[in-house]
Amino acid sequence: SILPQQGDPMGIDSPLVDNEGYPRADIDxxxxxxxxxxxxxxxxxxxxxxxxxxxxxxxxxxxxxxxAREEQNHVSFQExxxxxxxxxxxxxxxxxxxxxxxxxxxxxxxxxxxxxxxRDFRAIxxxxxxxxxxxxxVPITVRRKQNVEWGEVVEVKxxxxxxxxxxxxxLLGCHINKYTE
Length: 181
Prior knowledge:
Residues 54-146 form the PDZ domain. This is PDZ domain-containing protein. It holds the Pfam family PDZ_6. Keywords: Chaperone. It comes from Thalassiosira pseudonana. The longest helix has 34 residues, at 29-62. Strands 4-3-2-1-5 form a five-stranded antiparallel β-sheet. It folds into two domains: 1-63; 68-178, Roll (Pdz3 Domain), CATH 2.30.42. The N and C termini lie far apart (55 Å). The protein has helices at 29-62, 95-99, 122-134, and strands spanning 85-90, 106-110, 138-148, 151-161, 174-178. By secondary structure, it is α+β, with helices and mostly antiparallel strands. The chain is built from three helices and five strands.
């Protein structure tokens, strides 16, 4: 057993040495280090697997079977899509600009990332470098308001964004902020 005979159980962050710098006598230090090493290996494997799943979900979303690319610009309203972010700045000559993103676009989906799983944009921050490294693009669905002669028109578009290094900051070339109605 890795539990000490007295006191609190040994945890992942518990010191392996006593106050004087000697190995603790109440635990098997070698076994504790081995278990900690294995724990960190599993943690890293888990992170890598989550990245692979995200990429797979993006690919599945991007290559929906039986749907032509033109048809992807028309979003089905069978399931409600909740906005979660707004594009408040798009830089010239950036990947976002080339994809057709505009300031004021409301983000509905970013590949497989949506209002239920964006984790305060961490999901996007984790996905973008992976896509850029693999040279892959991601379908993003936006809601855009346009003023016309007779009033305001709201359209939903799916754009193809390819994250990559460019002459500005980041890999997208736009600023994404939290959306509030």
